[in-house]
Structures are given as C-alpha cells and as structure tokens.
Design brief:
With 329 residues, the chain is an alpha/beta fold. 26% of the residues lie in helices and 26% in strands. Strands 3, 4, 5, 6, 7, 14 and 15 form a seven-stranded mixed β-sheet that branches. A six-stranded parallel β-sheet has the order 10-9-8-11-12-13, with helices on both faces. Helix 4 links the parallel strand 9 and strand 10. Helix 2 crosses helix 3.
Length: 329
C-alpha cells in the first residue's frame, strides 16, 4: 500500500486565491490491478487555466486539477514499463494509479541533458498551445507582424520564438524590466514593460507603427481593448487566455468590438489546445528538434516541495515566474 499526498480545493476561489482555499490530505492507494500502473510525481505544473477551470469543472473537496511528469514505479501494463516517464493529468498528487488511458509517454529519444520538466512546458502543453495558436489559429503568413502579451510566460515566450524561427517580426510585453530583458535575449524584436509605460497605445505604436497582423492574447481586458485598435486589416487574434480577468469579483466591462472588427475585417478565435491532439506527436518532435538546435530556448521557475504547490500557484498568478512555473517534488 502507498500513501499519497494530495492538495484539494477546500473552498472555491473568491477573487485572488488564498492559502485557506486549499487543504492537503493523505489517502491510501489500493494495490494495482492488471493493466494499471503506479505513478510517482517528479514535477507538477501550475498554470493560469487552473484558476477559471476550477470554478467550472471542480467541486469543493476535489483534488486540484493539473498535469505532472511522473515516473512509473510499479506496472502491470506492458505499454508503461517500470522506470519510464509519462505526462499524466492526475492533478496535485504525489502518487496515483492509472489504467494508462490518460497517460502520454515522454518522447522516446528524450536527451539526458534536457530536463524532463520541459514535458510540462516548452515540449509540452504550453509549447503545443503556442504552436497551434500561431500556426492553426493565427495562420501566420509572409510579412506578418506578431504581438504577444504575457510574453515572458510559459506560452508567450514560445510564441515569440516560434514566430522568429519562422521569420516574422515579433513584439512582446511583460510586467518587469527583467522580463523585458529576457525577451530581448531570446530574440524578440521589440519588448516593453506594460507597467511602466505612460501610454499602452503609444508603446504599441512605437514598437510597430504599421500595426499588427497576428495578436496572441494571453491577458484580455484593457490590454486587448487597446491592442485591437492597432490591428491591421484582415488581422487575426488568437484568444488563448484572459489572466487579467481571472481573479475579478466584479466582471470588467470594456469597449464593444463589433464595429472595429467589421471595418478592419478581423478574425478573433478562442481555442483550447486539445483540438489538435491528433497532431501532438509530430508537433512535440518539432519543438524538441528546435530545442536541440538551440533555436528554441527555455526558462523555468522551479519551486521545490509538494507542500509548496499553493504558493507556487499563487506566485504564478502574480507573475513571479519567467518561463514555465513548475514544482519539483
């Protein structure tokens, strides 16, 4: 028998999450049955989507949702031998039992010098999100100018780098001078700190007087109201997230977009990464190839200790991370 630690949602979040909204529990797992494996978490992910998803998909008392890179420590399933590593959507747990249906093996040729935690980041869901948002939703084409906000985060930093690999001009914004310096380091053409500019509209114009063709939106809210004004005709907006809205207790109201979208003939599309799951294997191989070639750089913000999951989650929502926020067990 194995004792598993879990973090549960004690109370639904009202406004910004609090430590008292979470509760750590222990549970004893049963013996594995034929076809099952026992997983031990190595790295766990904390992501912005967990904040809005918890309100829609979770009940109080449920284990917090999320993905992890786990090691198979016991197996009665030949597809997942002992010692292999998988990505599992088992939530905030130290150990879990799976029948294998919800597991994704890490790429078989994963190099020893590339951290397996990237299976939760650049070579995982955030990397896939960045790729599909650009290639499938924005459908970037020759001459496009790309704008991405929350650009130093797990998704935004990959968006900008893929766009540069493909030969496009990229403008990014972030919430600190340190993050802006990081964006310049990984190849963004222009970057600015949205917290210190006197006018967001003027900052966007300074970075690209011609406007923008592809806007990869992770933030929503007031930023997007300003950015939409600077879209070029036939521009595309990939709506990936709305982190500026997630912790509101009173819903924001803003300018209505219909007239602007009509006259500029814009296309705005929300998306969830799972839509292109059938392409994941080939896309992950491409992301890994770019990492190996040094074209796609990564940064991780690693918090040590399963007991620190809530703190890591709240820190990520505050923007404390550059790159992917991960918890190492």
């Amino acid at each position: 028998m194995v004792n598993a630690k879990t973090w549960t949602l004690r109370k639904h979040f009202v406004g910004f999450p609090k430590f008292s909204d979470f509760e750590m529990k222990e549970e004893q797992l049963p013996e594995t049955k034929d076809g099952e494996v026992l997983l031990e978490a190595v790295f766990l992910s904390v992501d912005p989507y967990m904040r809005p998803y918890s309100a829609v998909h979770m009940k109080e008392g449920n284990v917090m949702i999320g993905a992890q890179v786990a090691r198979v420590v016991e197996s009665k399933n030949p597809s997942f031998p002992v010692g292999c590593y998988v990505v599992a959507s088992t939530g905030w747990r130290t150990h879990s039992i799976s029948d294998g249906k919800d597991l994704q093996l890490l790429l078989t040729d994963w190099p020893d010098n590339i951290p397996k935690s990237l299976g939760l980041g650049t070579i995982g869901m955030p990397g896939l999100t960045a790729y599909y948002g650009l290639m499938e939703v924005c459908q970037i084409k020759d001459g496009d100018i790309v704008l991405v906000n929350a650009a130093a985060g797990a998704v935004g930093s990959v968006v900008g780098q893929i766009a540069k690999i493909k030969g496009f001009k990229v403008v990014g914004c972030a919430g600190s001078d340190k993050k802006v310096a990081y964006l310049k380091q990984i190849g963004f053409d222009e970057a600015f700190n949205y917290k210190t500019v006197s006018s967001l509209a003027e900052a966007l114009k300074k970075c690209s007087a011609e406007g923008y063709d592809c806007y990869f939106d992770n933030v929503g809210g007031q930023f997007s109201s300003v950015a939409l004004e600077q879209m070029r005709r036939f521009g595309r907006i990939a709506v990936c997230g709305g982190i500026s809205l997630y912790n509101d207790t009173t819903k924001q109201t803003g300018p209505y977009v219909q007239t602007l979208m009509i006259f500029k003939q814009l296309r705005m599309e929300g998306f969830i990464v799972g839509r292109w799951k059938h392409k994941d294997e080939e896309t992950l191989k491409q992301l890994m190839a770019w990492v190996k070639e040094g074209k796609l750089k990564y940064e991780e913000h690693i918090t040590k200790g399963f007991e620190n999951m809530p703190a890591a989650f709240m820190g990520m929502l505050k923007g404390e991370n550059t790159g992917k926020a991960v918890v190492a067990v």
